[in-house]
Amino acid sequence: MHKLLRRLFQHRLLWPFVTLVLLLAVNAAFNPGFWQLQWRDGHLYGSVIDILNRAAPLALVALGMTLVIATRGIDISVGAVVAISAAVAALMIGGELVVKGGVQTYVSRFPMGIALAAALLAAALCGLWNGLLVAKVGMQPIIATLILMVAGRGIAQLLTGGQIITVYYAPFFFLGNGFLLGLPFAVFIAAAVWAGLHLLMTRSALGLFIQTIGINPAAARLAGLRERLITVCVYVFCGFAAGVAGLVISSNVKSADGNNAGMLMELDAILAVTLGGTALTGGRFSLAGSVLGALIIQTLTSTIYSIGVPPEINMVVKAAVVFVVMLLQSPEFRAAVRGVVLRPARSGAR
Amino acid sequence: MGIVLEARGLTRHFTGVRALSGVDLRLFAGEVHALMGQNGAGKSTLIKVLTGVHPPDAGTLALAGEPISPGSPAHAQRLGISTVYQEVNLCPNLSVAENIFAGRYPRKRASGLWRIDAAAMRTRSRELLARLNLDIDVSRLLSSYSVAVQQMVAIARALSVDAKVLILDEPTSSLDEQEVKRLFDVLRQLRGEGMAILFVTHFLEQMYAISDRITVLRNGERVGEYLKADLPPNALITAMVGRELSAAVGRNEAAGAASGPLLLEARGLGRRGQLNPVDMTMRAGEVVGVGGLLGSGRTELARLLFGLEHCDSGELHVAGARVRFDNPAQAIRHGLGMCPEERKHDGIVADLSVRENIALALQGRLGIWPYLSYARQKEIAERFVKALGIKVTDIETPIALLSGGNQQKVVLARWLATEPRLLILDEPTRGIDVAAKQEIMNEILRLAREGLAVLFISSEMEEVVRVSDRIVVLRDRSKVGELPGNSSEQEVFHMIAAQA
Question: Which of A21, B74, B303, B389 is deepest in the core (most CB within 10 A)?
Answer without folding.
Answer: B303
